[in-house]
Amino acid sequence: MNQAQWTAVDQYINDLLIPSDPVLEAALQAAEAAKLPSAQVAPNQGKLLAILAQSIKARSILEIGTLGGYSTIWLARALPPDGKLITLEVDPKHAEVARANLIRAEVDKLVEVRVGPALDTLPKIAAEGHAPFDFVFIDADKANNTNYFNWALKLTHLGSVIIVDNVIRNGEVVDANSTDPSVRGVRQFNTALAAESRVMATQLQTVGSKGYDGFAMALVIG
After folding, report:
1. Which of these, 221, 85, 80, 84, lies nearest to 159 by C-alpha position?
2. What is the pTM for the complete model shown?
3. How far is CA 88 from its chain centroid?
4. What is the C-alpha separation between 45 and 49, in angstroms, rounded?
5. Separation of alpha carbons 112 and 144, rounded Å
6. 164-193: b or e for each residue (b if 16 or more CB lie within 10 Å)?
7. Which residues contact 112 (CB under 8 A, 6 or more apart)?
8. Domains annotated on the chain, with CATH
9. Mind listing the pLDDT tens digit for each residue in 135-182?
10. Separation between Cα atoms, residue 218 and residue 196, nearest integer Å
């Protein structure tokens, strides 16, 4: 098993279950043209996010880490017509690309893109009195995963679902002596997740076109 085979299997899955979508393909092309990092979720992962959000009938979604808005489009499409998605992006250039992609996808009326460090924006969202979010997707700088997760707990309710991406780090998560800030951040988050009694949680390893990684899923139970 190798990266070429993982990618080929992802393509097989996508060809079977994810019809060609010019809007999503244009979003990827726009991100590439703007030289954004190729860190967005894969198509089958984006559809998984949409299925999870729809399965709990999410009406309010928080996304931490917008990039070019690819996952944002998937999540926004999972919302009802009166739903709301707030997505946080630290980089103004990324946010500009994302906004254009959201307009092209005709979901911009459902989505608010907020620019700035998420740890500055999240307290403002809390102070504004937004209704608790039904679904949270965290896919930002891994060093702050624990902080983002703690804010997600403050901004959700019983029955909300929290997804945290990239928690396996090509298997490096098992290295307690790693000096990589992302690995250290993920390990700190994993320890916090294991100790958090307010959620029922698990993690899954994944392989595919995005390499070897995985995600955490937490259901708020208290």
Report:
1. 221
2. 0.97
3. 11
4. 6
5. 22
6. bbbbbbeeebeeeeeeeebbbbbbbbbeeb
7. 84, 85, 86, 87
8. 3-220 (3.40.50.150)
9. 999 999 999 999 999 999 999 999 999 999 999 999 999 999 999 999
10. 10
pLDDT digits (tens, 9 = 90+) for 32-74: 999 999 999 999 999 999 999 999 999 999 999 999 999 999 9
Decide: 85 and 59 in contact? Cβ < 8 Å.
Answer: no
Write b or e for each residue in 31-54: b if 16 or more Cβ atoms lie within 10 A of its Cβ, otherwise e: beeeebeeebbbbbbbbbbbebbe
**Tokens standing for 92?**
């103004």
How large is the average pLDDT for residues 211-219? 98
Q: Name the residue with tokens 């396996």.
A: 168
Q: Which of 215, 217, 142 is nearest to 184 (CA)?
A: 142
**DSSP 8-state class, residue 166:** -
Q: Compute the distance between CA of residue 177 and CA of residue 180 in angstroms, rounded to an integer.
A: 9
